[in-house]
Amino acid sequence: MENLLSILVPVYGVEKYIERCAHSLFKQTLKDIEYVFVDDCTKDNSIDILNNVLKQYQERSHSVKIIKHKSNSGVSEARSTALKEATGKYILFVDSDDYIELNMAELMVTEAVQKSADIVFCSIVNEYINAEQTLIKHIYNESKIKIINDSFSQPSLCNKLFKKELVTMNKLDFHVGINYGEDLSFTPCLIYSANKFAFIDKPLYHYVKYNTSSYTAEFSDSHLKQTEEVITILETFFKEKPDYNEYSDSIVLLKAIRKAKIIRSGKINKYTIKLYPEINKKISTLSLEYKTKIILFLSQYNQQLLLKLFVSLLHFSAKRIS
């Protein structure tokens, strides 16, 4: 029997965080929820903690699945497994080191039903170790192209509730081996496949930024390689569409945003500076924040020393603020 909503949660190395996450999920005001947890062979006590929390919510126990992978496969494979197991009309992903407002599911589903929306967006709260919080307000637009463009900077799936039929009808899935940028490889394709959108102007999702064991905690050579793979995946996806001409500039924007992020992470060398030279002629016309444009202009003229100085200043400024 189809459930109204499936909440999908990959689990790996989150014993410090999963108790709070699980409570926020099982306390949801919406009753008709299926929970699919995927144990990606976590080496800690995450699953034991999850089961202990579940004992406090007997009314939820019949609607909880805990699936264990045979071997550690990464977050993309875990999300793919969860998606295949889900029976809900609507899907909501939650990372197991994050947590959500207790009425998030009800508000998102109600909005989807009332607006006949394929995808519902909400805002996010970034939480830092010093108790600082930053509101990341989703930039809502009626234009699908603009929503996709915004997703290049805000690719998180976790603030997006969507109809499962978008996935099944369009044969969407996560890409095995992509464990950095897996949201980015999936979200623009999901948005492209949708026709109607809705937005709740409330921060319903809490994104924990102080989990140092998170896959996104630091930028490595592997992350660089996977970022390039994700860009190739998206470029291929849109090039295969009959209306690709409408999205060609979006691909240039994608490359510009991700190149600047790579350099801003500290990966400043001949290789990264020369990435995607096709964006150079369009930097001034792209809708980008001024810091990103400065990084791209300095890259265009191979100014490694100035780039290193500018990036250092950005990091210093960010530390002072946080």
Keywords:
322 residues; alpha/beta; Spore Coat Polysaccharide Biosynthesis Protein SpsA, Chain A; 2 domains; 9 strands; 43% helix; 17% strand; globular
The gist of it:
With 322 residues, this protein is α/β, with parallel strands linked by helices. The chain has two domains: 5-208, Spore Coat Polysaccharide Biosynthesis Protein SpsA, Chain A (Alpha-Beta Complex); 221-321, no CATH class. Helices cover 43% and strands 17% of the residues.
Verbal overview:
The protein is of the alpha/beta class and about 325 residues long. It has two domains: about 5-210, Alpha-Beta Complex (Spore Coat Polysaccharide Biosynthesis Protein SpsA, Chain A); about 220-320, no CATH class. About 45% of the residues lie in helices and about 15% in strands. The chain is built from twelve helices and nine strands. Strands 1, 2, 3, 4, 5, 6, 7, 8 and 9 form a nine-stranded mixed sheet that branches. It is globular, with a radius of gyration of 20 Å.
Question: Topology, please?
Answer:
Elements: E1 5-11, H1 18-26, E2 33-39, H2 46-54, E3 64-68, H3 75-85, E4 90-93, E5 99-100, H4 104-115, E6 119-127, E7 133-136, H5 144-151, E8 160-163, H6 164-170, H7 182-193, E9 197-208, H8 221-239, H9 248-264, H10 270-273, H11 290-300, H12 304-321
Parallel strand pairs: 1-2, 1-4, 2-3, 6-9
Antiparallel strand pairs: 4-8, 5-9, 6-7, 6-8
Helix pairs in contact: 1-2, 5-7, 7-8, 8-9, 9-11
